[in-house]
Amino acid sequence: MAEETTAGLWGGRFVAGVHPAIHEFTGSLHFDRRLARHDLTASMAHVRMLYERGILEEAHAASILGGLSDMLREVEDGALAVEGPDEDVHSWIERTLADRIGEPARRLHTARSRNDQAAVALRLYVRERLEDILSGVAGLERVLLEQAAAHRETYLPGYTHLQRGQPVSLAHHLLAHVAALRQDVDRLRVAHAAAGTSPLGAGALAGSSFAVDPARTTALLGLERPFSNSMHAVGDRDYVLDAAYACAVLLVHLSRWADEIVLWSTREFGFIELDDSISQGSSLMPQKRNPEAAELLRGKSARTIGNLAGLLALLKGLPLTYNSDLQEDKEPLFDSLDTADWCTAAAITLGRGVTFRVEAMSRALEGGMLTATELADHLVRRGVAFRTAHEQSGRAVRAAERAGIELWELDLEELREACPEAGEDVLAELEPRRAVAAHRSPGGPAPDRVEEQIRNSEGRLVELETWLDGRCPPPIYRAHADGTLMGELP
Fold it and tell me: What single string gives the DSSP state of each residue in 296-346?
């Protein structure tokens, strides 16, 4: 018979150890080791609360806290590797602590289950990683806002159905991407808040017979609220879905922006030029300059979409409360968080390597009859019903196309053959810059509206950057002047 392993944290009930094949199959240390810092921090808060509630005596609490804080410092410094034969990171912490401080380590798990232990560590991790991603989104917003400010008076076609529609400023176009990222910020912060519920004290599913204080551990960990129902607390992974969803939508937005970079860098568009530092060549065709980073940004969105779908499928049929299926939440979540973080960093570098070709954009304003809507609006202001004005403007477009000229280059009398009610000033109104300036409706492309959008976006970005700067380690996580970490008793 194959050699059997020991039974880790739960061996008393069992005569035989776990078969090595099952131990390997059920083990998660190879991926949940990244939760070590967060589990150690949560364990310190748990022990501090047990001491304050009189559940642990001072000598035991001090020994455990000292051992945990030493481990935390060494994990952060890279001096302590999270590895071994353990089933998971939670087992690794207890074994390592026991090797260091002996019998008091066996008291660490008092009034706690791996169910609430694993959930709180994951929540702390999710919040930290969402802050990293938010910092990346803020960096990309900063790049786009700087580009928008520099191109207030650069004009190009706005597109629908990938066909030229109406003239806009490049600033207005870039601010559309900023608006999408701002929605991502809102989603990421909602996910961050959702992960702020502490499950510590919920136990396996039914709380504890000890006089635990979930509100105290919540405060020590810098979380926002304690759980309201112990059964829900240990089985809840909505915050995982929220984080995965926020990452997926962010990557969809990055994909759309990246697709634009791919499209605009083609000879057919020629709206942008890519710096050599963000381009790659062909192994066969010497002339090629490929936007491969943008293509990969576009492609990586599929990973986060797939992870979200997988997590939804994982959770849809689980009975209350905890089931080991939930171990499978971590790898897709970790991948989504990693991918979102990596992609925002890449997008910042990519955005900085783009040069806009103003002349090419200006040339694209020609030949598309982009101010036909302005002609129809002009007629409506002179009393023509919109549908009639639409038809008359269409006839004027045909006349300009036959002549090979723009709408604003038509002779006024020729224009009036199609649009009898056209006024004397109509041709000037049809020039693209004038048309953009006339679109002063809220959120529109007129220069004063663009200034409002830049100002408002800048204000919200500063608020986000201030919030991120104000994020600090949990109260239990104390840094002393010499750099050591302690979970000291009061």
Answer: HHHHHHHHHHHHHHHHHHHHTTPPSS--GGGGGGHHHHHHHHHHHHHHHHH
pLDDT, tens only, 28-87: 999 999 999 999 999 999 999 999 999 999 999 999 999 999 999 999 999 999 999 999
Nearest to 279 by CA among 265, 268, 269, 267: 265
Q: Domain locations in the chain?
A: 18-113+475-486, 115-150+169-363, 372-430
With the CA atoms of 308, 309, 312 and 318 taken in that order, what torsion angle do they form, in degrees rounded to the nearest 10?
-130
Cβ atoms 188, 246 nearer than 8 A: yes
CA-to-CA dists, residue 254 to 129, 308, 334, 356, angstroms: 18, 17, 19, 19
| Active-site position among 161, 209, 283, 324 | 161
Determine the straight-line distance between the first and last CA of the chain, rounded to whole angstroms: 53
What CATH code is assigned to 18-113+475-486?
1.10.275.10
C-alpha 474/C-alpha 452 separation (Å) is 38
| Sign of the CA dihedral running 36, 42, 44, 50 | negative
From residue 436, alpha-carbon distances to 155, 162, 459 in Å are 9, 19, 25
Residue 351 per-residue DSSP state = H
Residues 6+ apart with CB under 8 A from 391: none
CB 345 within 8 A of CB 136: yes
User: Any catalytic annotation for residue 161?
Assistant: yes
Residues 6 or more apart whose CB falls under 8 angstroms from that of 385 comprise none
Q: pLDDT at position 282, please?
A: 78
Residue type, 80: L
Three-class SS state of 101: helix
322-332, pLDDT tens digit by residue? 999 999 999 99
Calpha distance 47→61 (Å, rounded)? 6
- 427 pLDDT exceeds 90? yes
115-150+169-363, which class in CATH?
mainly alpha
Q: Which of 228, 277, 282, 362 is catalytic?
A: 282
DSSP string, 235-302: H--HHHHHHHHHHHHHHHHHHHHHHHHHHHTSTTT--EEE-GGG-B--SS-TT--B-HHHHHHHHHHH
Residue 128 burial class via C-beta count within 10 angstroms: exposed 0-12, middle 13-18, buried 19 and up: middle
What 8-state DSSP symbol labels residue 226? E
Please name the fold of domain 372-430: Ribonucleotide Reductase Protein R1; domain 1 (1.10.40)
Q: Note every long-range contact of 223-228, with CB atoms under 8 Å and residues 24 or more positions apart, other chains counting.
A: 223/123, 223/124, 223/196, 223/197, 223/198, 223/474, 224/193, 224/196, 224/197, 225/196, 225/197, 225/198, 226/197, 226/198, 226/200, 226/201, 227/197, 227/198, 227/199, 227/201, 227/202
